[in-house]
Amino acid sequence: MTGTIRMSVPTISGELLLSESVAEFCALHPSLKVEMRLENRFVDLVEEGIDLAIRTGTMPDSSLIARPIFDSRWVIVCSPGYLESHPEPRSADDLLSHNCLTYTYQESGTANWLMKRPGRNGIYELQVNGNLSANNARAIRKAVIGGHGIAMVPRCMVYEDLQDGKLTEILAGHCGKVLGIYAVYPYTRNLPLKTRLLIEHIIGSYQKYQPLFLSFPLGLFPRYRKRPRGLRHFWT
Question: Where in this chain does the record put each LysR substrate-binding domain (predicted)?
């Protein structure tokens, strides 16, 4: 096989595992070239000539094909140092009296956190307050590690921080944000073999890292649904 595959991936996934995964794929197929763009913005795959995109969020109806990979769970975290000087939240409403650092790229809105009540079905939105928001989740992570507040972030991004004790998960069971991860490509009757093989390779890579994304069986977590507004995608 020869040729070039142009792909777009979200920044966190690209840095966490896709850069290595795609490099491995290129080593397996030395006659192929992959141009990978890491970006947290809407990309019109057809207009910009993108063969494949990895997307996280709700997939609205469109002319694109979205192949599910699995779900990505988010968690509410803070640093141990923050808890030394602030009371630990025991309920979702307690968050209203804390400095909540927010991530701009959220389907529900920057300051609206998706919550659930343990033991009950359904997801609701809680509007939090804080003095810092950013369009880069890693920037929020650094601020939280520094003890500057509480944040809701992708579990995969802070997995090692939780294991090392740099961060502590709070309100476990109350966070209601779970987003699907998809391989997305323009509709075609015959998907090129090189693209199909890359998708399979990427899915295999994600499966190896599944514990970083989830801590419960697939399909057992309530999903938040929002009416699609045209062709919109959201990233982690």
Answer: 2-202
User: Could you tell me the end-to-end alpha-carbon distance of the chain, in angstroms, rounded to an integer?
Assistant: 32
Contact between 206 and 22 under an 8 Å Cβ cutoff? The reply is: no
Rounded-to-integer distance, Cα 223 and Cα 116, Å: 10
CATH number at residue 108: 3.40.190.290
The structure tokens listed for 3 are 């040729």
Q: Are 110 and 190 part of one and the same domain?
A: no
172: containing domain? 72-177
- 78 with 117, same domain? yes
Q: What is the CATH number of the domain that holds 57?
A: 3.40.190.10
| Amino acid occupying residue 133 | S
Residue at 158: amino acid letter: V
Tokens, residue 75 = 């968690």
The β-bridge relationship of strands 32-38 and 133-134 is unpaired
CA distance 72 to 35: 25
For 48-81, the pLDDT digits (tens) are: 999 999 988 777 657 789 999 888 899 999 999 9
Q: What is the DSSP letter of 16?
A: I
